[in-house]
Specification:
By secondary structure, the protein is mostly beta strands. 11% of the residues lie in helices and 33% in strands. It contains 6 helices and 23 strands.
Length: 338
């Protein structure tokens, strides 16, 4: 069956979708048609890839914002359309498919406002964090610029939705905020060369490395793991913006607002250890797997570095915004003990 103009829906916003997908083909029962062919055949604009009618699959170079949602059919992955709708991917879609596949079944579209966004992560990823990776933050915490990246981790139970509540633990009185750019690994690797590091990145998202300072620093030995791993202490999202959409991840504005007041403001060009260095360095110790998260560090302005110190309290709202990646906002609530 030949592809006819009436087989495709078009609208005024089509050109943006076509121009962003640099290497895609529409597969029809009679063959496939690529970008150049369509553009030469029709002076038309696709509203989105899911507007294609009578088409079995869409094959494209992934360049999108990937979301994870609570859907009536269960937890599902999808992609953002015009910042207003979500195109659902197949129910059996897994994030690691993006490392090897570029063809996915066309999906139903639903309103973004009608769904609850979840943390856009694989189940139980490694959550790798870098400490004191901005010189001004190292100084405010009373330390020197580290000679090597300071590496610690958070347990996966800390993961939190982009707009979920952060729970203040009953056993902590010094809970702090940390705005961070988060790297999402898209291709597994060990002993990754710095020059190849960016090829292993799926995309980027916003993160808040919530920290209980009285446990992280105020206990014998410095209990970083437990101080960082309380439930809900790692909000991420609102989606994964794929690497193709971020031309300079090392030059993004990062901002954190507490109850509407800016507390942290910096740019990722101030990272002591840039993203390629971190990916290469970490892979010397352990395999980086698809979906692993790297919290790249926080700039100055954290509550513990202020005089007097400022810690989170019930009903506070903390918002992290990163240029090109969107924003997450989390309300602070008290832990309710049974």
């Amino acid at each position: 069956m030949p592809l006819r103009p009436e087989s495709i829906c078009f609208c005024q916003k089509s050109c943006k979708a076509i121009q962003k997908l640099k290497n895609w083909r529409i597969r029809t029962p009679s063959g496939s048609v690529g970008h150049a062919t369509l553009m030469s055949m029709f002076a038309l604009q696709l509203r989105s890839i899911s507007d294609v009618k009578q088409v079995a699959h869409v094959n494209f170079e992934i360049t999108m914002k990937i979301v994870k949602i609570n859907h009536i059919s269960g937890i599902r992955w999808g992609y953002l359309i015009n910042d207003q709708e979500v195109g659902l991917l197949a129910a059996d879609f897994a994030l690691d498919q993006l490392a090897t596949e570029r063809e996915f079944v066309s999906a139903e579209r639903i309103s973004l406002e009608s769904v609850a966004l979840l943390a856009p992560t694989v189940p139980a990823p490694k959550i790798i964090c870098i400490g004191k990776n901005y010189a001004d933050h190292a100084a405010e915490m009373g330390g020197e610029v580290p000679e090597l990246p300071i590496v610690f981790s958070k347990y996966p139970n800390a993961l939190n939705a982009p707009f979920g509540n952060v729970v203040l633990p009953a056993i902590s009185n010094q809970v702090d905020y940390e705005a961070e750019l988060v790297v999402v690994i898209g291709r597994s690797g060990k002993h990754i060369a710095r020059e190849a590091a960016m090829d292993h990145i799926l995309g980027y998202t916003c993160g808040n490395d919530i920290s209980a300072r009285d446990w992280q620093k105020g206990r014998p030995g410095g209990q970083w793991l437990v101080g960082k791993s309380f439930d809900t202490f790692a909000p991420v999202g609102p989606w994964i913006t794929t690497a193709d959409e971020i031309s300079e991840p090392g030059n993004l504005d990062v901002e954190l607002r507490l109850n509407g007041v800016t507390m942290q403001q910096a740019n990722t060009n101030l990272l002591i250890y840039p993203i390629p260095d971190l990916v290469s360095y970490l892979s010397q110790f352990f395999t980086l797997d698809v979906g692993d998260l790297i919290f790249t560090g926080t700039p100055a302005g954290v509550g513990a570095g202020r005089n007097p110190p400022l810690f989170l309290k019930p009903n506070d709202e903390v918002e992290v915004s990163i240029e090109g990646l969107g924003s997450i906002k989390n309300r602070i609530v008290s832990e309710i003990l049974d």
